[in-house]
Specification:
10 helices; 420 residues; 5 strands; 2 domains; Heat Shock Protein 90; single chain; five-stranded mixed β-sheet; alpha+beta; disordered C terminus; 59% helix
């Protein structure tokens, strides 16, 4: 079991980027400042010659300020509060320049490592204090030299706080840019993964639609040839098997060639269009289906967008494959209609639904998934299932495949081959 994390306590937890190395660095800064301050005190180098507290009293604010240097990152607010008291107390002794220098570092650290609220308020307060000190000493001394005291105060608190603001803003901007870069890289990886997944799904649909029809015919006719002891039937079945084997092999070679050829200067392979429906229906009739094609699209010389024609062709192809594999004996009807507002192409394939005699090929359901995906990619609708048709003999149920594909008619000059 993972141990529970300790409670944060009354003070903010040390940021993740402040490790043991950083704490040692703060300790080195404090000891260095204290050592230098002691050396200057030992040689008698002070900021003034007389104060209320003489002698070694100058070391008290110095030691306190050095102690606050060790807390400059972990507890910046506490360090600033205690450091302010120490630097004020230093003004009642002979004074030490090192104490003032360490105070400027504490002010800088309070803005840089403190809370966002403190980072906004400390520079404003420093400006107000500098103005107040300047006006106060002007009123007290009534000499222009009092302005120098205000300038010194500004150098001690306004300058380091302003520097802290600049550095903090720079770090926040760098962190935001780093986060933006990580998000961009993540989005790019997501886009790449989605593109690979979409391409794999597209290739799976193409492979299924191109080969399943031929393999289904081969499976059905080979089963018939094996189950019927009739030389004439066997010879006819072998002829159909050979024809579908050659066609399927050609489709496979074309698809493998597209996958292997990654050159940009190759000629694009022509995608199937609705002009090939007659040949598709003729092949289905050769495989033993009783198919009729009803195409009432307008003959106005306009071509449909290539994705719409490809989707419609593949839906008809897969529907005929399913009819060959699963449909009961009877007529299969393929209907295409174009029209409506907004314009759309509707594809409807009906076939007898029910048990069938003789061999049948197994199905996996991938064909229905592929047809639905093709319609969805074009923002169309797809439905498939059994339903009774009024004009069917005896109200016989029919398997109905219906797809609605939105279109935008384009001129014949826009048509061109695309890779399926």
């Amino acid at each position: 079991m993972r141990p529970s994390s300790p409670s944060p306590g009354p003070w903010p937890r040390l940021p993740s980027f402040l490790g043991a190395e950083t704490q040692r660095l703060d300790l080195v800064i404090a000891l260095s400042g204290l050592s230098l301050g002691l050396l200057m005190w030992a040689i008698g180098l002070n900021t003034t010659t007389f104060r209320l507290l003489d002698g070694a009293w100058v070391l008290v604010p110095m030691v306190v300020m050095a102690a606050m240097e060790t807390q400059r990152r972990t507890r910046p607010s506490l360090a600033l509060a205690v450091g302010t008291v120490a630097v004020i107390a230093d003004q009642f002794t002979r004074g030490s320049l090192i104490t003032v220098v360490m105070f400027t570092d504490v002010v800088y650290a309070a803005v840089l490592y403190g809370s966002p609220t403190a980072a906004r308020r400390i520079p404003v307060r420093c400006v107000l204090i500098s103005v107040a000190v300047t006006l106060g000493f002007l009123a007290w001394f009534r000499t222009p030299e009092a302005i120098l005291i205000g300038v010194a105060t500004a150098l001690v608190c306004v300058a380091p706080s302003t520097t802290g603001v600049l550095v903090r803003n720079h770090r926040e901007m760098a962190s935001a840019e780093r986060l933006r870069a990580e998000q961009t890289a993540l989005l790019a990886e997501i886009d790449r993964t989605q593109a690979v997944t979409a391409e794999r799904a597209r290739m799976a649909r193409e492979l299924h639609d191109m080969v399943a029809n031929h393999l289904s015919a081969i499976a059905i006719h080979s089963t018939a040839a094996l189950s019927l002891d009739d030389p004439r039937t066997t010879r006819s079945a072998l002829g159909v098997i050979r024809e579908n084997s050659v066609a399927g092999l050609a489709e496979m070679r074309r698809l493998i060639g597209l996958l292997r050829d990654s050159s940009d200067d190759r000629e694009p392979a022509a995608a199937p269009t609705l002009d090939g429906l007659e040949a598709l229906v003729a092949t289905a009739r050769t495989n033993g289906l009783e198919v009729s094609l009803v195409d009432d699209r307008p003959t106005d010389g306009l071509r449909l967008p290539a994705p719409v024609e490809l989707a419609a062709y593949r839906i008809v192809q897969e529907s005929l494959t399913n009819a060959l594999k699963h449909a009961a004996p009877g007529a299969v009807t393929v209907e295409l209609h174009q029209g409506g507002r907004p314009p759309e192409l509707t594809v409807t394939v009906t076939s007898p639904h029910g048990d069938r005699d003789g061999p049948r090929a197994p199905g996996s359901g991938a064909g229905l998934v592929g047809m639905r995906e093709r319609a969805t990619l074009l923002h169309g609708a797809f439905e498939a299932g059994p339903e009774p048709l009024p004009d069917a003999p005896g109200g016989r149920p029919m398997w109905r495949v219906h797809a609605s594909l939105p279109i935008e008619a384009v001129g014949t000059s826009d048509q061109g081959g695309t890779t399926p």
